[in-house]
Specification:
558 residues, alpha/beta, eight-stranded parallel sheet, five-stranded antiparallel sheet, 18 strands, 29% helix, binds 1-deoxynojirimycin, binds calcium ion
Length: 558
């Protein structure tokens, strides 16, 4: 049943910032902390009241900061620690909470711990990492990294170290209590500085099969992670982290936790979970080459989404989101290129934003930013894509085929500079941006959209206001959710609390449609629509229309 314990993070609207691509204030082409502080007024105007900042710690930037070489220092490319304290102060003044990324499955091979561990095999630091001897001149086992290739990298002295991601991201050894204490101390240090929580990176990889067994696969190309993803015994570490840090600090967490089965959701999130909530990455996965406009794709996706929502309602809580820094832009994810317009982008926004859980908006999503058209590997900045390409090319994949795949799923789409204006470099930098600006910035940017009542940006603003506004907030945050049967490509849900009810109806097609008997009756008041002049619901939905209706019960109570 719905979790009724009230907390700030259930009521919050989160905004994810990828600092490198948000706003550059010193002309080096890379976004920085001062850029975030400068745009807090924008975030306040938009209506969000919590931000998640992707990693800004000192880093060689192999993985744009997800490879940390000093957990307590801001990387010079983003500014200084003082810039961070200033950002926290200014955010607090605007009642905006800040959470940071917690990347503790691995650090950087340039972290002093790892440098010492390599130089001195008997040092305490050597115990912070996972070293093994090779077998018959080969890697210790057949485990494969998330970024391609073996998880093992050889050192000149014959040892191998394990890395779940790139070889420049050595995994930390969570079996070592001294290492765990270092991590907890670091978390407390940041919480004492005034952050409100963490987005927890890749956390289900911290426990490995202690015997490091190879995984038998029928097909050698399979991706064997069973022995180091959500491996039994991981709960001991997560429970300890909860007792040592998260509970005493009342620290909010949203975790990236791949591989958690349905039966364990309650261990991970909700009232008794290790974390406040975990991301569900299963609901928007389309099969390779699926026709996004087909009825089959729509039905499969709708079912997955409904299942995820009902499960979350049962376990207690979840984040709701359409994008992040690893995913393509949502219009391209859900619609065919030729059918994308402001109407289906705003319909998608209404669809997810009022569901059960805490909404997250990824930077640029609120103005309708789109996938970047990549033509060759020289348009690709994501290191992990280059590592994967090397491996795919060796197995016979052509550059053209690989680029076609990246154009669908690549991570760079989310990382092009934020589009502030139609001016030079979309107003992101006075210099040369580290990654090219999307060619559509003259039509899609904050400056123009903020002056256009019909824009994607203004729609997001209205949505945010509606979700946070009394008396509806209570229904959207703490109400139950149910999904009535609806015909064709219509999807919708009812949010209910204390006898009050709101219905959201979305037409997932470019043809007008009639939701039929399970929808509210004609004459129901519309609270929000992505069409103009929609005061009263008339029983019909226009192309790509989304309507948020007040149910009769509420009207009758007035
Ligand atoms: C997940 C992060 O979201 C991604 O960007 C990163 O590459 C990996 N974890 C490794 O930290
Ligand atoms: Ca900069």
């Amino acid at each position: 049943m719905t979790d009724t314990v009230r907390t700030w993070w259930k009521e919050a609207v989160f905004y994810q910032i990828y600092p490198r691509s948000f706003l550059d204030t010193n002309g080096d082409g890379i976004g920085d902390l001062k850029g975030i502080t400068r745009r807090l007024d924008y975030l306040e105007w938009l209506g969000v009241n919590a931000v998640w900042i992707s990693p800004v710690y000192r880093s060689p930037m192999e993985d744009n900061g997800y490879d940390i070489s000093d957990y307590r220092q801001i990387d010079p490319v983003f500014g200084t620690n003082d810039d961070m304290w200033e950002l926290l102060k200014e955010a607090k003044r605007r009642n905006i909470r800040v959470i940071m990324d917690l990347v503790v499955n691995h650090c950087s091979d340039e972290h002093p711990w790892f440098e010492k561990a390599v130089a001195e095999p008997d040092s305490e630091e050597a115990g912070y990492f996972i070293f093994r001897k090779g077998k018959d001149g080969k890697e210790p086992n057949n485990w494969r990294s998330n970024f391609g290739g073996s998880v093992w990298e050889a050192l000149p002295d014959g040892r191998y170290y394990m890395h779940t991601f790139s070889a420049k991201q050595p995994d930390l050894n969570w079996e070592n209590p001294k290492l765990r204490k270092q991590i907890y101390d670091m978390m407390k240090w940041w919480l004492d500085k005034g952050i409100s929580g963490f987005r927890v990176d890749a956390i289900t990889f911290i426990k490995k099969d202690p015997e490091f067994h190879s995984v038998e696969t029928e097909d050698g190309s399979r991706y064997p992670i069973e022995n180091f993803e959500n491996y039994p015994g991981i709960g001991k570490f997560l429970e300890e982290m909860k007792q040592e840090v998260l509970e005493p600090y009342q620290c909010m967490t949203v975790a990236e936790a791949p591989g958690v089965p349905e039966s364990q959701l309650g261990d991970y999130e909700g009232e008794n979970g290790y974390f406040s909530m975990i991301f569900d990455f299963t609901w928007d996965q389309f099969p390779e080459g699926a026709d996004k406009a087909s009825a089959e794709t729509f039905t499969a996706w709708r079912e997955a989404m409904i299942k995820g929502q009902l499960l979350a309602q049962k376990t207690g809580w979840c984040p709701i989101f359409l994008e992040n820094h690893d995913q393509p832009r949502c219009p391209d994810k859900f619609f065919r290129a030729e059918e994308i317009d402001g109407k289906n982008i705003t319909m998608l926004a209404a669809l997810y934003f009022l569901m059960f859980g805490t909404p997250f908006i990824y930077q640029g999503q609120e103005i309708g930013m789109r996938n970047y058209p990549m033509k060759s590997m020289s348009d690709v900045y994501d290191r992990s894509a280059h590592i994967r390409f090397q491996e795919a090319a060796a197995a016979g994949t052509t550059e053209e085929e690989f680029i076609a795949c990246l154009n669908e799923k690549g991570r760079d789409h989310a990382r092009t500079p934020f589009q502030w204006s139609a001016g030079a470099n979309a107003g992101f930098t006075d210099g040369t941006s580290w990654i090219p600006v999307h060619p559509d910035f003259r039509a899609c940017n904050v400056e123009d959209e903020s002056g256009d009542a019909d824009s994607v940006l203004q729609f997001y603003r209205r949505l945010i206001r509606l979700r946070r506004q009394e008396p509806y907030r209570d229904i959207f945050v703490y109400g139950t959710i149910e999904f009535p049967e609806l015909p064709g490509k219509i999807i919708g849900y009812k949010r209910k609390k204390d006898g009050r009810e709101i219905t959201v109806l979305c037409n997932f097609s470019g043809e007008a449609a009639e939701p039929g008997a399970s929808a509210p009756g004609p004459g129901t008041e519309i609270l929000l629509s992505n069409y103009e002049n929609r005061g009263i619901y008339d029983g019909r939905l226009r192309a790509w229309e989304a309507v948020v209706c007040l149910s009769r019960q509420i009207r009758d109570q007035k």
